[in-house]
Amino acid sequence: GLTAGIVGLPNVGKSTLFNAITQAGAESANYPFCTIDPNVGIVEVPDHRLNKLTELVQPKKTVPTVFEFTDIAGIVKGASKGEGLGNKFLSHIRQVDAICQVVRCFEDENITHVSGKVDPIADIETINLELILADLESVEKRIDRVAKLAKQKDKEAAYEHDILVRLKDAFEKDQPARTVEFTEEEMKVVRALHLLTIKPMLYVANVGEDDIIDPSGNEYVQMVKEFAAKDNAEVIVVCAKIEAEISELDDEEKKAFLEELGIEESGLDQLIRAAYHLLGLATYFTAGVQEVRAWTFRKGMKAPQCAGIIHTDFERGFIRAETVSYDDLLQNGSMTAAREAGKVRLEGKEYIMKDGDVVHFRFNV
Ligand code: GDP
């Protein structure tokens, strides 16, 4: 599955947040296919539609879809030059699909900051620079390889060379690849380079307990937001310490706790949803009396591929997908009523699944 890597300098609250993730973790019995790796935290994706469908269908069991976070330790200044666990760190980042960078935005005299003071932008720049330097090295190597061919009027090489030079220029100005504009065609070449700074980035501003209700007073958060806007990245605000406490509560207690604070959604739930969105993921549902279940697919996937997420046989023997949108189903109150209202569609092999589709796959065995 797709995964988001959690990175950050030492003492910014990474472990606290990752512990909250594993603590809140999904019941593994429901997800036997998931990785068993101490560095991977599996969380359920919060989705109010699943609760509604459960009320409607009254199934024996309800199963949310899950999302994986990977804890990536070991970033230090000089990582790209192999300092500390540098090389390992970079190879771990290479394997994730998006990066969640935890940034310290809380003051606490008792907790040492690696560079002496709280300075989120300097922290971000430290990490980003290591990623940019690693990418610069990859791009320079590649330029060496294609430059000669490009000069010999090899069209493809010239095309790639132009892209590489634009990337190199950006890196030399400390700009990540995700800020460079490319056409769809060019993106194919860019993707093949497996750059680190092309991955979607989410800054996780870790604020103190006092700031969680109204983070707008936290100047560090404002700084991170301004930086992210230029950096083509997103920002969410959490208080890792509070998230760690929330993760020990059951659903009822959690709800009461959040209500007391006047917060609608926990920071962790926001993080899960932001990461899910960042990766271009969407959810479809199956809704039978045995089980109502949410499934994750990548936007743009067709019905047979989506069926294959449940079982490979479903994809191989795919006939059609009986589909109703979540809104239509809810508006009509039952599958039968939705069918009578003509809202249930029979979709074929070319159908591109939509977020919120409630599906019944028909297949040959
Ligand atoms: P890591 O090195 O980035 O993994 O950082 P840790 O998660 O170990 O956190 C470093 C220290 O900061 C620990 O003592 C945490 O309890 C503390 N810490 C983490 N998040 C917060 C927070 O939101 N507020 C405060 N006051 N302390 C925090």
Automatic annotation (TrEMBL):
ATP binds at N11, V12, G13, K14, S15, T16. InterPro entries: ATPase_YchF/OLA1 (IPR004396), Beta-grasp_dom_sf (IPR012675), G_OBG (IPR031167), GTP-bd (IPR006073), P-loop_NTPase (IPR027417), TGS (IPR004095), TGS-like (IPR012676), TGS-like_dom_sf (IPR023192). Residues 2-258 form the OBG-type G domain. The keyword Nucleotide-binding applies. Pfam families: MMR_HSR1, YchF-GTPase_C. Its cofactor is Mg(2+). CDD domains: TGS_YchF_OLA1, YchF. The keyword Acyltransferase does not apply. Signal peptide: none annotated. Residues 280-363 form the TGS domain. It comes from the Bacteria. Gene3D superfamilies: 3.10.20.30, P-loop containing nucleotide triphosphate hydrolases (3.40.50.300), TGS-like domain (1.10.150.300). Keywords: ATP-binding, Magnesium, Metal-binding, Nucleotide-binding. HAMAP family: YchF_OLA1_ATPase (MF_00944). Belongs to the TRAFAC class OBG-HflX-like GTPase superfamily. OBG GTPase family. YchF/OLA1 subfamily. ATPase that binds to both the 70S ribosome and the 50S ribosomal subunit in a nucleotide-independent manner. This is Ribosome-binding ATPase YchF. It comes from Ectobacillus funiculus. The lineage of its organism: Bacteria, Bacillati, Bacillota, Bacilli, Bacillales.
